[in-house]
Write a structure and sequence with these properties.
Elements: E1 6-10, H1 14-26, E2 30-34, H2 37-42, E3 51-55, H3 63-71, E4 79-83, H4 90-96, E5 101-104, H5 109-121
Parallel strand pairs: 1-2, 1-3, 3-4, 4-5
Length: about 120
Amino acid sequence: MSKEPLIAVVDDDEAFRLALAESLRSLGFDAREFTSAEEFIAGDGQGPCDCVITDVRMPGMNGFEFSRLLTSRQTPLPVIIMTAAVDAGLENKAKISGSVGLLRKPVQSDALIDCLHRALRR
């Protein structure tokens, strides 16, 4: 029996976070939701995940800082960053942070699936 990849969704916007997690489940992934990078880091006793999808703008640690932290670990986690912002240079900032990709909100399912496949192949 193979297990579904576990994707952590980290976003302070509750409605978006829950909707994205439900979309991931409908695509055959397991998903867990976290309200902040700090909540994810503190852990919830439910074990490691296979990939993290995080928003850029959150209270506390932002998505770029979070991505740098996760990708610099001895066992790095693939990170996908998402944002509703249209600021210039976000793609470059995402790349520098070590993320697999940058998705724009509202997230298109084909772009999400493509990013997840790239992230999980690592």
